[in-house]
Write a structure and sequence with these properties.
It is built from 19 helices and two strands. It has about 550 residues and is mainly α. The protein has a two-stranded antiparallel ribbon with strand order 1-2. A hairpin with a 5-residue loop joins β1 and β2. It is globular.
Length: about 550
C-alpha cells in the first residue's frame, strides 16, 4: 500500500485550520486579559467565566465525543461477541449530562470554584486534596494516551502513515494551540472539530450503506449471516457486567475536571444547565453513524473485498474496524473525509485533557500549596509547562501499549471507583470529613486492585460471583464489581466521617488528635443593644460568609 498523498494534503489542511482557529482564539484571550488585569489565570483556565452558550455546548460535546467514542462504538457493534447493545457510550452520556446539569452544576458554579478539587482543598486541607488530585491527574494522562492511540491506528490504516509520525504530529498540534489561548483556544477549535465530526461521518454513511460488498443491515440485525447478528444480546449471566459498564460510563464522567471546566466557564448556573442538556442530545446523534458503520462491517462479505480473509475480527483488528470499513468499502476520497472526523474527535478530547490536568496542578498544587504568592505571569508559565508535560507523558504511553481499551478502562475506573464517591460526599453530605475521605480513598484503591484487571495482566485476589471465562476465552468478573466498590467507598466515607464527628465533638478523644479539625467551633453571636441579630451575625453563625478564596467573574 502506497502513501496516500491526497489524504495527507487534506489532513495537513485540517491541522492548519485548527491551528489558525487556536491562534485567533489566543488573540481574543489576550484582549480579555487586558480588560481583567490580575485575572489572567481565570481567563486561561475558564475563559473569564464568560463562554458563549453555543460555544459551551459545542466544547462540552466535543470533549466527550472523542476518538474512543467514535471507534469504540463501531468496534462494539461489529464485534460478534458483543453487538450494538454493548455499544453503550451515547446513552450513559445522556445520563451524565442530565445528572451533571440537575445536581452537580449548581454547587460548583454558584461557589465560583476554579477547579473540581477546590471544595476538597477548602474542607479537607492540602494534604488530603493532593492525594485526591493524583488519580485525577493520572486519568487525564491516560485520556491523552487513548485519544492518540485511536488516531494513530486510524491514520496508519487509511493514510499508510507510520504510527509514530501520526501520533507525534497530532500531539504537537494539540499542545501548541492549547498553549496559545487556554480554554478560549480549546473551546473555539472544538466548534470547528465538532462540525467536522458531524459532517464527515454522515457523509460517509450513505456510501457505506450502499457498497456492493455488504448486505442490507436490517437483514443481518437479528439473523446470523457472515457472523453473529450485529444487534447483539445481553445474556442473563452478563447482565451484571452490562449494568456495571453502563454505570461506569454514566457516573465516571462526573468525576472529570474537563466536565467542570465547561460548567465553571459558563456565565451562570442556568447557562451551565442548558449546556449540559443540549450536549446530551448532540451525543446521541453523533453516536448513530458509528453504530451504522459497525453494522455495515458486520454485514460484509470480506472475501469479496481487497481486504480478503480472514475477517478483521479473526485478525484481531476489530478495534480498527471503522478505518478498515472506510478504507475498503468506500471510495478513496470518502475514506479521507472519514479520517478527518476521527482526527477532529481525537483533537477535541486531547486538548480538554491537557487543559484539565494543567488546571489541577497549577491551581490546586502550585498556587495553593507550593507558591501562594506566585504572580499572574508566573502562573501562566506554570500552566504552559503543565500542558507540555502532560502531553509528553501521554504521548510516551502510546508507545508502551497501542490498545485504546486498556487506557480507557484504567482511566475511567479511577474516576468512577475512587473520585466519584468522594465528589458526591463533599458536595452533598455535610457530615463528610477528612477521616472518612481517607478511609474511602484507601478502600477504593485497595478493593479495585484486589479485583484484578485482565487487560493489564492483573490477576484478581477477590473473585466476585460469576467470575468465569468470557466468549473470547478471558477470565472476567461478570458481577458489577466496580459499582460495588464505588458504593462501599461512598458508605465508608459517610460512616467514618460520622463516627469521627461524634468522637471529637463529644470529646471522647482529645482535640489535639483532631488532624482534620472536625470539631465544630462555637461561633459567638454578637448582639446589638436592641437584642436583634444583624444580617452579618446571621451569616457568620450559619457559616455562609463568602469564601475569600473563590474567584469572581471579571
Amino acid at each position: 500500500m502506497a502513501l496516500n498523498v491526497p489524504g495527507l494534503v487534506v489532513m495537513a489542511g485540517f491541522y492548519l485550520v485548527i491551528l489558525g482557529t487556536g491562534i485567533w482564539a489566543s488573540m481574543r484571550s489576550k484582549k480579555e486579559e487586558k480588560k481583567c488585569k490580575g485575572d489572567g489565570m481565570e481567563i486561561t483556565l475558564l475563559a473569564g467565566r464568560n463562554i458563549n452558550l453555543m460555544v459551551g455546548i459545542f466544547t462540552l460535546t466535543a470533549t466527550w465525543v472523542g476518538g474512543g467514542f467514535i471507534l469504540g462504538i463501531a468496534e462494539a457493534t461489529y464485534n460478534p461477541t458483543l453487538g450494538a447493545v454493548w455499544a453503550l457510550m451515547p446513552v450513559p452520556y445522556v445520563l451524565t449530562f442530565f445528572l451533571g446539569g440537575f445536581f452537580f452544576a449548581k454547587p460548583m458554579r454558584e461557589n465560583n470554584y476554579l477547579t473540581m478539587m477546590d471544595p476538597f482543598q477548602k474542607k479537607y486541607g492540602n494534604a488530603m486534596a493532593t492525594a485526591l488530585i493524583f488519580p485525577a491527574l493520572v486519568a487525564d494522562v491516560l485520556w491523552v494516551a487513548r485519544t492518540l492511540v485511536s488516531l494513530g491506528g486510524t491514520m496508519s490504516v487509511i493514510l499508510d502513515l507510520p504510527y509514530v509520525y501520526s501520533i507525534i504530529i497530532s500531539s504537537v498540534v494539540a499542545i501548541i494551540y492549547t498553549l496559545l489561548g487556554g480554554l478560549y483556544s480549546v473551546a473555539y477549535t472544538d466548534v470547528i472539530q465538532l462540525i467536522l465530526i458531524f459532517v464527515s461521518l454522515w457523509v460517509c454513511v450513505p456510501f457505506l450503506l450502499t457498497n456492493p460488498h455488504s448486505l442490507d443491515i436490517s437483514l443481518t440485525a437479528y439473523n446470523q449471516t457472515f457472523q453473529a447478528p450485529w444487534v447483539g444480546e445481553v445474556k442473563l449471566d452478563e447482565a451484571g457486567k452490562w449494568f456495571d459498564d453502563f454505570m461506569l460510563l454514566a457516573l465516571g464522567g462526573l468525576a472529570y475536571q474537563a466536565f467542570y471546566q465547561r460548567i465553571l466557564s459558563a456565565s451562570s448556573y442556568t447557562q451551565a444547565q442548558v449546556t449540559c442538556f443540549a450536549s446530551s442530545a448532540f451525543c446521541l446523534v453523533l453516536g448513530i453513524p458509528s453504530v451504522l458503520i459497525g453494522a455495515v462491517a458486520a454485514s460484509t462479505d470480506w472475501n469479496t473485498t481487497s481486504y480478503g480473509l480472514p475477517t478483521p475480527y479473526d485478525r484481531g483488528d476489530a478495534g480498527s474496524i471503522l478505518p478498515i470499513a472506510l478504507q475498503y468499502l468506500t471510495p478513496v476520497y470518502i475514506s479521507v473525509i472519514g479520517i478527518g472526523a476521527v482526527a477532529a474527535a481525537v483533537m477535541s478530547s486531547m486538548d480538554s485533557a491537557l487543559l484539565s490536568s494543567a488546571s489541577l496542578f497549577s491551581s490546586n498544587i502550585y498556587k495553593n500549596i507550593l507558591r501562594k504568592q506566585a504572580s499572574d505571569r508566573e502562573m501562566q508559565w506554570v500552566i504552559r509547562i503543565s500542558v507540555v508535560t502532560v502531553g509528553v507523558l501521554g504521548t510516551a504511553l502510546t508507545f508502551l501499549d497501542n490498545s485504546v481499551l486498556v487506557f480507557w478502562i484504567v482511566g475511567v475506573d479511577m474516576s468512577y471507583t475512587i473520585m466519584f464517591p468522594q465528589l458526591v460526599c463533599i458536595l452533598f453530605f455535610k457530615v463528610s470529613n477528612g477521616y472518612g475521605a481517607s478511609v474511602g480513598y484507601l478502600m477504593g484503591i485497595v478493593l479495585r486492585l484486589l479485583s484484578g484487571e485482565p487487560l493489564i495482566g492483573l490477576p484478581p485476589a477477590i473473585r466476585f460471583p460469576g467470575y468465569r471465562l468470557n466468549d473470547e476465552g478471558r477470565l472476567t468478573q461478570f458481577f458489577p464489581f466496580r459499582t460495588t466498590i464505588m458504593v462501599i467507598s461512598l458508605l465508608a466515607i459517610l460512616l467514618i466521617s460520622w463516627l469521627a464527628s461524634i468522637i471529637f465533638n463529644k470529646e471522647l478523644v482529645s482535640e489535639k488528635w483532631d488532624v482534620f479539625k472536625v470539631k465544630r467551633k462555637q461561633t459567638p453571636v454578637v448582639k446589638p443593644l436592641d437584642g436583634k441579630k444583624t444580617n452579618t451575625d446571621n451569616e457568620e453563625a450559619s457559616g455562609k460568609l463568602l469564601d475569600t478564596a473563590t474567584t469572581t467573574r471579571c
